[in-house]
Specification:
By secondary structure, this protein is α+β, with helices and mostly antiparallel strands. The strands form two sheets. Strands 1-3-2 form a three-stranded antiparallel sheet. The chain has a three-stranded mixed sheet with strand order 5-4-6.
Length: 147
């Protein structure tokens, strides 16, 4: 599990959160996703680990993980849907196809150059380090071009 490489339990305690078996199951479920995932997908994976986990537990746990900096959010495919991802040891960024949902990792060098340009141009000091760019992947473009 990705979160076994970082001390997530220590981080939760440092932010004043208790570490419960249910919260750990949600953490495991989020980590097992291997990328962006919805709360419904986290719920299904968490229930496979602990059948007693309900939707509200997942939402509360995801909120705690985001507030403590252990999880990231990104807009989902459907309006109002949020996708979640466990933080990694080093920042990473994504290209996501809006048609088929395929995700590709964007190089840290490319994203870093973009972040530095935004800081110079707009005077912001960026505190978030998660970027998801939406578009249409080459495979979907091929299928569209043929019609």
């Amino acid at each position: 599990m990705t979160h076994n490489r970082l001390n997530y339990i220590e981080i939760l305690h440092a932010h004043g959160y208790r570490v419960t078996p249910q919260r750990l199951a949600v953490l495991d479920a989020l980590c097992a996703a291997g990328g962006h995932t919805t709360s419904a997908e986290v719920l299904a994976r968490a229930r496979a680990l602990d059948a007693r986990i309900d939707r509200s537990t997942v939402y509360r746990s995801l909120d705690v993980l985001v507030k403590s900096g252990l999880a990231l959010t990104a807009p989902g495919d459907n309006a109002g849907e949020t996708r979640y991802e466990i933080v990694q040891e080093s920042p990473h960024h994504h290209l996501r196809c809006s048609r088929c949902g395929t995700e590709h990792e964007l190089s840290a060098a490319s994203a870093g150059a973009f972040f530095r340009q935004v800081e110079r141009e707009y005077g912001y000091r960026l505190t978030g380090d998660h970027l998801v760019l939406e578009g249409v992947c080459p495979e979907c473009q091929k299928h569209t071009a043929g019609h």
